[in-house]
Amino acid sequence: MTTPPEQQAIAERQLCGLVNGLAQRIAEHVRERAATLGLTAPQATALRELSGPMTMRELAERMSCEPSNTTFVVDKLEKQSLVERHPHPTDRRAKHLVLTAEGAALRARLLALLAVDSPLSGLNPREQRVLHGLLEQAVTSP
Length: 142
Hints:
Elements: H1 5-36, H2 41-49, H3 56-63, H4 67-79, E1 83-87, E2 95-99, H5 101-115, H6 125-140
Antiparallel strand pairs: 1-2
Helix pairs in contact: 1-2, 3-4
C-alpha cells in the first residue's frame, strides 16, 4: 500500500525537522565543549576526527567540508602545536596529518567532554546503533 503524496510530504517534513534539530543540538554541544578548551567548533571537529594519521582530503571528508576549509582549520591547529604535517608514506604529493603529544592529550580531553550530556546520551547503545543504521540506509539509498 502506498502513502498518499500529501501524507508523504508531511512525514518527510517532520523527519527533516527532527534530523535538523538533532544536528543543531549536536553542533551546539560541540561548540560549547570546544569553547571550554579554547577551540572553535571546526577545530574541535578536526581533533575529534583525527583518530590517526590521515591526509587533508580524508580529514575534509570526515568533517564534511571542503579541503580548503580544512586547510584553514589545520593551519590554526598547527600554529597551536596540536597537529604536524608529515610526509605521506606512499604518496610524495600528499602530507599526513599527525597529532602531536599535546594534540593527542587535548583530543582525549575533548572526547571526554563530548561524551558528557551528549544529545545522543538519551539513547542506549543498541538504540544508537539502530538510529545509525537507519540514517545510513536513508543517506545511501537511491
